[in-house]
Amino acid sequence: MHNLDWEDLRCFVAMTRAGSVSAAARALDVNHSTVLRRLDSLERALGTRLFERFQSGYVMTAAGETLQARLAGVDEQIAAAHSAVGGHDQELSGEIRITTTDTLARSMLMPALARFQQLHPGVRLQLVMNNAFLNLNRREADVALRPSNTPPDTLVGRKLGKLSSAIYASRSYLKASVKRGIATDDWAAHEWIGLDDTLAHLEQARWLAQTVPPERVRMRVDSLLAMADATREGLGMAPLLCHLADNDRRLQRITEPDPRFDTGLWLLTHRDLKDTARIKALTSFLYEELTSILAPTDQPVVVSAR
C-alpha cells in the first residue's frame, strides 16, 4: 500500500462513493478522463482489475471490494490530520525568529515587540541582530526588518517608509568649534565620525569619502547606533538617522535631511510563511506600529516573490 499513489486511491474512494465516473469527477472537481486515468494507474500498480466495465456502468470486482474495505475511513483520517496540523498555523502560538540591525532593534523594534507580546503571550520571539541579510529562503529567520533600496525579490512584504538622514553634531562640539572660528558648514575643517568597510555600501559612507578628507575622520564604526553615540559624546560630526537623533537634546541637526541618504525600510518574510497566523499577526502589527514613526513613502509599495 505504501507504494501506491494517494491521488489514485482518492479517485478510487470517490468512485466507490459516487457510483459513476461522472459523479466522481464532479466530487473531485476534475475532468472525466482524469478519473479514468487514475483508476487505470491504480489497477496497473496493483496488478488486478478493481472494476468491471459494462455499458450500464462500472461494477466493483472482489478485489475492488477488498480494497474498499481496507480504505474505509482513510480519507476522513487524512482530512482530520490536515485540519489538526493546519490548525497549528492558525493559532497565535509558536516561535517567530526576527532579524534586523542593532540600530533598528533599539530605536524602534524593541518597544513594538514588547507591545506585541503583551497582546499575544503564546508567541515566543527570537531576535537576531545582524547587519547582513539572513537567508529567509533557508529559514534562517522568519521575518526581516531591513533597510534597503533593493530588497530581495525572492521575499514578500511591504515598505514601511523611508529612513532619512542629516548632518548632526553635539551641542558641546558645535560650541567648541565656534570658539575655534570654524564655520559650521566648512566640512573639511571639522572632525567626523565615519563608517568602516562593513558599511561602505551606504550612501552616507560614500558622501563622507567624497566630502571629508580621510585625516579628518576621527573614528570609524560598524554601526549607525555607535555613530550616533560617538557624535553625542562630541567626537565629531556625522550623518545620522533622523529618527535616532532628532529627539536627543544633546544633538543638533545642522542640515536638512539629504534625499541621497534616504533608505527604504522593508518588513519581509518568506512567501510560504506570509499566511501563517502568527507571522501575519506580527507583520500587520509592526506595519501599523512602525509606519507612524517613519518618513512616509510617496505611495504604498508591496514586493512579492515571482
Can you give a write-up of this model?
This protein has 306 residues and is an alpha/beta fold. The protein folds into 3 domains: 6-87, Arc Repressor Mutant, subunit A (Orthogonal Bundle), CATH 1.10.10; 91-163 and 263-303, D-Maltodextrin-Binding Protein, domain 2 (3-Layer(aba) Sandwich); 165-261, D-Maltodextrin-Binding Protein, domain 2 (3-Layer(aba) Sandwich). Helices cover 41% and strands 22% of the residues. The protein has helices at residues 6-18, 21-28, 32-46, 62-70, 74-90, 102-119, 171-179, 203-211, 224-232, 242-245, 277-291; strands at residues 51-54, 57-60, 94-100, 123-129, 143-147, 156-163, 165-170, 192-195, 217-221, 238-241, 251-253, 263-269, 302-303. The strands form 4 sheets. It has a 6-stranded mixed beta sheet, with helices on one face. A 3-stranded antiparallel beta sheet has the order 10-7-11. Strands 1-2 form a two-stranded antiparallel sheet. A hairpin with a 2-residue loop joins strand 1 (51-54) and strand 2. The longest helix is centred in the middle third of the chain and has 18 residues, at 102-119. Residues 296-306 have low confidence and may be disordered.
